[in-house]
Amino acid sequence: MPYLNDMPLEARIALLNRRDADKTAQGIVKPALALMTQKIALVSSFGADSAVLLHMVAQIAPRTPVLFIETMKLFRATSSYQKQLANHLGLENVNHISPDPRRVFLQDTEGLLHQSNTDACCTLRKVEPLQQALSPFSAWITGRKRHESATRADLAIWKADAARRLKLNPLTHWSKHDIVAYFETHNIPRHPLIEKGYPSIGCAPCTYRAPPGMNASAGHWAGQSKTECGIHLPVEPRNT
Ligand code: SF4
Fold it and tell me: Separation of 4 CA from ligand 1 center, angstroms?
């Protein structure tokens, strides 16, 4: 639909959401990759559920840019899993996104900012590096799902980000059962920390074991009201 690019962003998003409402995740991802070749990136933490979208993208277009945010605070197991999974799936364009070392030295000299100000730490190590990495792209894909937290309960398939890029969430309707079934059907290796009780896997200092059945947000920033790192902060509606 080439004329899509001529439409105001909000109208384009409304149209895409209507068009894709009843499609499978693969049915949503495939035309998006075809239409926006090399202008759309998959942003992945290589965490607990990440392999589902990584597998879909690898099956459809393995040269699709994958942006892996290496915060320098990840579990060692995540770094190993990232390499293993990328090889296993045949991903050909994984880009490691890291925080600016000079800014880390100035703002988090001791590496303990997460203990005093998690929002500032996430901004430094995740939000700013990702914003910079996304600058050449007009759209990105995320693995967010509605069941993960109350703040994601009404998550749309297509949204806009703060820079007014398209953001595609093809797994919005997926349940935990759907995720497990996909891993089993396609014989995809799981992150090694899952069997150790981590429902969702991010940075080591801020990720916790949680009782079975708890949603993903229960495994992060224990004792804080924070449920999002900031890369998915909502966008204020704007007229175009
Ligand atoms: Fe820092 Fe924790 Fe955010 Fe990672 S999750 S960037 S360690 S505050």
Answer: 37
